[in-house]
């Protein structure tokens, strides 16, 4: 094996190790925050697993692509969360609930806007995420959508054949009306791409408004039953390899998911629900600010030579003379 084939681009290795995205790593390399074997790194550097990499002076654990296990999570996104890692406005993000992992990072496969809930996939494999999001692979996404407005057959036909949006033509691969009447109706729609707010914009182009939007399926993977909003579950090896096969990637051979029976699965779901409730309570509880201690009042300085007054004993009862001690024991003589 040649040196070039045994090595990888530095920014790719750092992104796989969970330090940050490739774009962020390119910026860090350019700003001199990364060293390789004690020397400042430059863009275009390739490294091997035996070399020592540091970011801001801290060592980074390097793993080859073959050593890293491809993991995939199903996350039940609730409304009100954004799909960024951080938010300057302080809004909750989907990443705050995910389990911590060492030597890798969770990458969102696509996005759901803040008012959309349902199935959101995460993986540790950046190549898998990029391919699943690419339109050329035409991976299906199914949504349950509640539409407010007068929906007729002509409108549904236009949504099937294609409507013009600001960023090009778009159409639903399938659209199915669920039983019900009135101006608030539920539909199931299927897309094979994931443009920004595409489902909402398509309905808005027909004069209707989406009042609820839930992703229920990605490819053949359904939103797991009994998974609470804000909860996650890791897919077993078969489901991981189903996704890899969809986008022409080699199968994974290892997994961290342990087999479990029905009782174990029930206990895990109960534990997940408790964790979700605990997280929700913590998020709603305002942070306590430490109370400022009032400065102690300064006592007046005591003048030199003045001694503190002696403490006085209890006052004698009025109308009765106070006895003086005699030093003798009282006798019983003379008592009646």
Give a verbal description of the structure.
This protein is of the alpha+beta class and 336 residues long. It has 2 domains: 3-60, Structural Genomics Hypothetical 15.5 Kd Protein In mrcA-pckA Intergenic Region, Chain A (Roll); 72-282, Pseudouridine synthase. 23% of the residues lie in helices and 21% in strands. The chain has 8 helices and 17 strands. Strands 7, 8, 9, 10, 13, 14, 15, 16 and 17 form a 9-stranded mixed sheet that branches. It has a 4-stranded antiparallel sheet with strand order 3-2-5-6. It has a two-stranded antiparallel ribbon with strand order 1-4. The longest helix has 23 residues, at 262-284. The chain is globular. The model is unreliable at 1-5 (pLDDT under 50).
**Radius of gyration (Å):** 35 Å
C-alpha end-to-end distance: 122 Å
Q: Provide the β-strand percentage band.
A: 15-25%
The overall strand count is 17
The ordered string of helix (H) and strand (E) elements is: HEHHEEEEEEEEHEHEEEEHEEEHH
CATH superfamily of the largest domain: Pseudouridine synthase
SSE-based structural type: alpha+beta
> So what's the CATH class of the largest domain?
Alpha Beta
Q: Name the CATH architecture of the largest domain.
A: 2-Layer Sandwich
CATH third-tier fold name of the largest domain: Pseudouridine synthase
Short description:
It catalyses: uridine(2605) in 23S rRNA = pseudouridine(2605) in 23S rRNA. The protein has 336 residues and is α+β, with helices and mostly antiparallel strands. It has eight helices and 17 strands.
